[in-house]
Structures are given as structure tokens and as C-alpha cells.
Amino acid sequence: xTAGQTARERARAELTGAIKDEAxxxxxxxGAHQLSLRAVARAxxxxxxxxxxxxxxxxxxxxxxxxxxxxxxxxxxxAVEPVAEPALWWHAVCTAVRGxxxxxxxxxxxxxxxxxxxxxxxxxxVAPAARIPLALVRVAEAADLPDGDLxxxxxxxxxxxxxxxxxxxxxxxxxxxxxxxxQLFGMIGFELFGQLVGSADPADAxxxxxxxxxxxxxxxxxxxxxxxxxxxx
Amino acid sequence: xTAGQTARERARAELTGAIKDEAxxxxxxxGAHQLSLRAVARAxxxxxxxxxxxxxxxxxxxxxxxxxxxxxxxxxxxAVEPVAEPALWWHAVCTAVRGxxxxxxxxxxxxxxxxxxxxxxxxxxVAPAARIPLALVRVAEAADLPDGDLxxxxxxxxxxxxxxxxxxxxxxxxxxxxxxxxQLFGMIGFELFGQLVGSADPADAxxxxxxxxxxxxxxxxxxxxxxxxxxxx
DNA sequence: CCAGAGCGAGAGCACTGCTCTCGGTGTGCT
DNA sequence: AGCACACCGAGAGCAGTGCTCTCGCTCTGG
Lengths: 233, 233
Prior knowledge:
Chain A is mainly alpha-helical. Chain A has 2 domains: 1-56, Arc Repressor Mutant, subunit A, CATH 1.10.10; 58-218, Orthogonal Bundle (Tetracycline Repressor, domain 2). In chain A, 66% of the residues lie in helices and 0% in strands. In chain A, helix 1 crosses helix 2 and helix 5 packs antiparallel against helix 11 (204-218). The longest helix of chain A has 24 residues, at 7-30. Chain A is elongated and about 60 Å long. The structure holds a DNA duplex. Chains A, B: This is Transcriptional regulator, TetR family. Chains A, B: GO terms for molecular function: DNA-binding transcription factor activity; transcription cis-regulatory region binding. Chains A, B: Residues 36-55 bind DNA. Chains A, B: InterPro entries: Homeodomain-like_sf, HTH-type_TetR-like_transc_reg, HTH_TetR, MT1864/Rv1816-like_C, Tet_transcr_reg_TetR-rel_C_sf. Chains A, B: Residues 13-73 form the HTH tetR-type domain.
């Protein structure tokens, strides 16, 4: 894939990657707020102004990191191997999301926390962002989920989403997937941002139980042999 | 209430309030990231160094704003008048939360988005933060919710929370309240932070439907349906 | 082989949070 | 009433930031 590139192009791609890597390193340590272009340049031994040859602004660098984070999370989720029993598969996918979030909390905060710059350009991020809910849809499709009554307006929206996703789910089932989707990220966000500190502070048990409850809400049959296969640490 | 205060104390309280008001104004316009102590001082016609007589750092100012925001949201939620039918009351409370969030999105992002400074001091904020989940608990107490099976570890946590909240709910019901709590804020956060942009973008219908579904999940009878199916533990 | 695009470095601007010092002023105690 | 002291506002200053501009050097396509 690097064939046909001039030396300059290769150097540019390499340096772009190095800048992102260093930025990601600082992001993981100090958070998005502390990320400084000058500090990145300093760590790379280059003048701060040279960074602007690769990223026109700090926000553009952050946007690039956001897209990469979406992709990393998407890959982590898609790496979950399908299991015949949808409830178990569901549990594995949810656990993968949480595991990635806990392991990369600043990157998670970058994509699911409050938008850091004035406003994010949504169009570059919407495609990689869709990978995670799509993974949830794939699990749901493996089960035979009942439909459900939906108000007309919502039904139209959901059917449009079904078209985008190329999914065979019924609108009622898709709506429930969307509900569990928001629940999952709400719970993980609360855990990461300290909102559970007074209640379900070590959130493992709460997370595990909630995922099961949401699976039941979705319509996935819950495997009552809980001790057979436990959650991955 | 201002009796017994010296002129200096009154002036100090007044200026402290003025600083917070101006900061809140800038927050609402530009977001937390853009909030600048110097700009606040400039707007108030004072030297930037004088601000530090009232707030020792920018983060302290933000923390004060966070606590105020929690209280404002708490008041908005507690201002919801109880209704005899719990499902309706529930709906009103959830709608109040969303309404406040939409009307004060930067303040909402400040408290429920990613923690802006290195790390926030949690202990000053945990008390006002508890007002919102407590309001949800109060609604749940008005209904006769069934219990549910809980793993031992989670059950212990939930019972501890019940003690803190002084609630008469069963552990199973309390756990479901916590699940719906995280769902509610996950959904609102997704709407505010643009995560629903490709799917349920005008989120009114989705929100409305989800609140009803979560009420049914909780065990509140839906007012429009004769006898909704209760949750299955 | 050479014009022009790409590139790195440095200086510089306007801004930030924060500190320190310096006078003036209101306050509580004697 | 007088006074010591804590409090307060202003200004200068430090270190850091994002970003721009200009200057030479180098690699590249024609």
C-alpha cells in the first residue's frame, strides 16, 4: 500500500502518524483539555509551527483523534466473536464496550463526553461512530425478537434507520435496541465520570446485572446458568 | 438574612454572585472550554487578579458553577408536581430533566460531560448531585413495585443506597430505578452531544416512547394501556 | 534542470491562568 | 477613639498557549 508513494508522501504519512501517536499519549495521560500542540511538537523535537503543516488547528487534531477512537472502539466491539446464544453474545459485546472505555477513558471521554471545541464537525465522525450501534443490531438480528407498537413519527424514524443499517429487524425491536444502546453508554459514562460514586461505585456487579436486564428487555432469552460462563475481567 | 453582616461581607457575597453570574453567562454562550477568568474580570470592570480574591482558581469557579447547576436541575425536577398516577408523574419528571438539559446545554455538559479539569473534587458535588436520582426514587415509591432477584454483591450495594436515600423500595425495584436513571441520562446526553444525529435526530418521539418503555420496565402501569406486562425477574 | 510546491525553524501576536507586590480601606479589639 | 491587621483592588510580570508569517532549504514533476 506504500508502493507508488514518493519519499515525501511517505514521510508525511509517517509524521502525521507520529503526531497523532504522541497526541494520543498525552491525551491518555492528561486528558483532552491538557493536550497542547506545542508539547506534542516539543516531544517530537520539532518546532511548534511545523505541526500546522499536518493539522491546520488543534481542533483538527482532536477530530482526527476522535475518528481514530471511534474506529478503535468499533474494532474492539467487532472483534467479539459471535456466539450461538444471543444473550451471551450480547453480554460479550456490552462488556467489550465497557472494557475499552475503562482502558481508554480519556479517549472515551473525548468521543462521548461533552464536545470539546466550539462544535464538532459531525459528518466525518458519523460513519465510524455508527459501527458500535451496528454491532448491537447484528446481535439483535441473531435472535428472533418480537415487534412492538410504535408511535407513527418514531416508527418512521426507526424505519429510516433500518434502511441505513440494512437491517431486517422489526421497527419495534430496533427501537428497543436504540433504547438499550443509550442505556449502555449512559451507564458507562456514569461509571467513568464518577456519577456512580455514591451508589454503585465498583460498578462491575451493577453493569453485569443491567446488561442481563436489558437483554431481557430486548427480548433475548436469558441463560439462567450464570455460573457456567462468567463475564470476562 | 443579610442582617448581622458587615458591609464587607455583603459586598463580598454580592461580588461572588456577580462573578458566578457573568461566568454562567459566558458558559451558556461559549461553553466551559472558552470560559476565561480574564474575560469575566473584564466584563465586570475589574482587574483579573482581583478575581482570585473570590475564587482561588479557574477550576474552583467551575466547581461552584457545577454545584449551582446540580441545584438548578434538582430544583427543576423537584418542582414537578406529584400526580396520583405514577406513570404520569414519572413521565413529567423525565421530561423536566430533558427540558432543563435542552435549555441549559452547556451547564448540562459541565456536570454530565467529561470532567473538564484534571479531576473534580467529588465530595462537594455528591450531595446536590443526589437530588435528581432521589426524585426518581420518590416517584417509584408512589407505586407498588415488585421486587426482583439480585446477585448478592449488587444487592448489598443497593441496600446501602436504600439506607442512604431513606427509601422503602425493595432492592429489586431500586436496582431498576438505577437502570432507568442511567438510561435517562444516557439518552439525554446522546441527544445533546449529537450522537443521535443519524438516527433519532429530532429526539422528541424517541424520548417520549423510551420514557414510557422504561416506566413499564420499572413496573409502573402505563395509563393508556389496560394492564401492561410487568418486568420479569 | 529548474520553477514551484512542500517543508522546518524562528520570531512574533494576542491571549490565558496564576503570582506577587504595592498601596488604600474597612473591621474588630483595646 | 485609635490602632493593628486582615482584606481588597490594581498593576506588573511569568510561563505557557494557539496560531500566523516570513525566511530559507529541499524534494519533485514537467
